[in-house]
Amino acid sequence: MGWRRTGRPGWLIAGTDGETSYFDVRARHELTDGDALLCACISGCGLAQLPGWLAKDGLRTGALREVLPELSTTMPIYAIWQKTRHLQPKVKVAVDELVRLSLDEALIFSP
Predict the structure, then answer these.
(1) Of 11, 21, 82, 100, which one has the greatest count of Cβ atoms within 10 A?
(2) Helix (H, G, I), strand (E, B) or coil at 66
(3) Burial class (CB in 10 A: 0-12, 13-18, 19+), 38
């Protein structure tokens, strides 16, 4: 399972050379909502690549377990905002939080 915008479903994985590459996944289910993906994985619908911040509670409670840790890599997060001379404080807080969260690893989980 995985989420995507266009193209074939896939995961970002770390190679032995340290480079991140795209791995095509044959998926029976495709979900575009992270919470739905998390719930499906916990319910036993298959494997999912999730950001660490989304899966941390499931790991802590034992609802999820990490598989293939050697393939874990970081996942890109993008923030786009309107060009302006002064960045609004609420936008700065949101972007700073995304930067902090983006430091988590993308892990592959199973129930």
Answers:
(1) 11
(2) strand
(3) buried
d(CA 43, CA 23): 24
- State the average pLDDT over residues 70-90: 79
Query: Token digits for 32?
Result: 């575009």
Distance CA 106, CA 7 (A): 20
Calculate ∠ Cα 73-78-79, nearest 5°. Answer: 150
In terms of average pLDDT, the best of 20-24, 33-37, 82-86 is: 33-37
Strands (E), the chain: 10-14, 20-24, 48-51, 65-67, 73-74, 105-110
What is the sign, positive or negative, of the torsion defined by CA atoms of 6, 22, 14, 30?
positive
Q: How far is CA 92 from CA 43, 51, 53, 75, 86, in A?
A: 36, 22, 20, 21, 10
Residue 74 dihedral angles phi and psi, to the nearest 5°: -85, 150
53, 104 contact by CB (below 8 A): yes
Residues in the chain: 111
